[in-house]
Specification:
The chain is mainly alpha-helical. The protein contains 8 helices and no strands.
Length: 229
């Protein structure tokens, strides 16, 4: 698991770097930026647009944080440890910092306002913050649910719902004209990278903490990452 997570993080980073490199040459994936934007701009539906706009607001940092906090809070209560919260919190901080740093440093222009749905956003376009944050945090939550809960049906539901949410969030940013295709794809890649790094950290901590089932009377709020299932 550790080496798979490390390899996944490296591949995701290389994918994001490849997407960014295509911007300057306007080839490969970047060549589809304008066609994809034009497609969504000309195929928006009057009844669907408000729904997509409401959905994309769920992906904003404040709203997404509340939803995920409720879910990870349930997991902490169930396992009687704050460890899942610390893992998700670390991923959230890394996700926000990476988003702000890249948007500020690269300062890519957003798609033209005439092809976008208001309210218009003014921060840098690359990468898509909604997509990056959603991908990183939802994948980390799915990992924690799979590792720290028993029911296999819950694992399947978490993975399917999580992946569907991540895909829908990225597509919603394209539908609304808030981002270019390359912004969204880079957001998926960088979010996956951060999630993989969170798994790496967790697995390294597991190596330092003997995997064991903690007796109910000995579980503390800051219990380590040992096998809590």
């Amino acid at each position: 698991m550790l080496w798979a997570a490390l390899a996944s993080a490296l591949l995701a980073l290389l994918a994001a770097a490849g997407v960014y490199e295509s911007l300057g040459e306007d080839d490969d994936l970047a060549a589809y930026d304008r066609p994809v934007l034009d497609f969504f701009a000309t195929h928006r539906l009057a009844w669907l647009t408000p729904i997509v706009a409401a959905f994309t607001r769920v992906g904003s940092a404040p709203v997404l944080s509340v939803v995920l906090l409720a879910l990870v809070g349930w997991l902490c209560w169930r396992r009687r440890t704050l460890y899942p919260l610390l893992v998700l919190g670390g991923a959230a901080v890394a996700s926000v910092v990476l988003t702000v740093v890249l948007k500020t440093a690269l300062d890519r222009s957003r798609p033209p306002y005439e092809l976008a749905v208001p309210p218009f956003e003014t921060s840098g376009s690359f990468p898509s913050g909604h997509t990056l944050n959603s991908t990183a945090l939802v994948l980390v939550l799915c990992y924690l649910l799979v590792r720290l809960t028993r029911p296999r049906w819950l694992h399947a539901v978490a993975v399917v719902v999580g992946l569907a949410y991540i895909l829908a969030m990225g597509v919603s940013r394209l539908y609304l004209g808030a981002h270019w295709l390359t912004d969204v794809v880079s957001g998926w890649a960088l979010g996956a990278m951060l999630a993989a790094l969170a798994v790496v950290v967790d697995r390294l901590l597991l190596r330092r903490t003997p995997a064991r089932v903690l007796a109910p009377g000995r579980r503390g709020l800051l219990a380590g990452p040992g096998n809590l299932t």
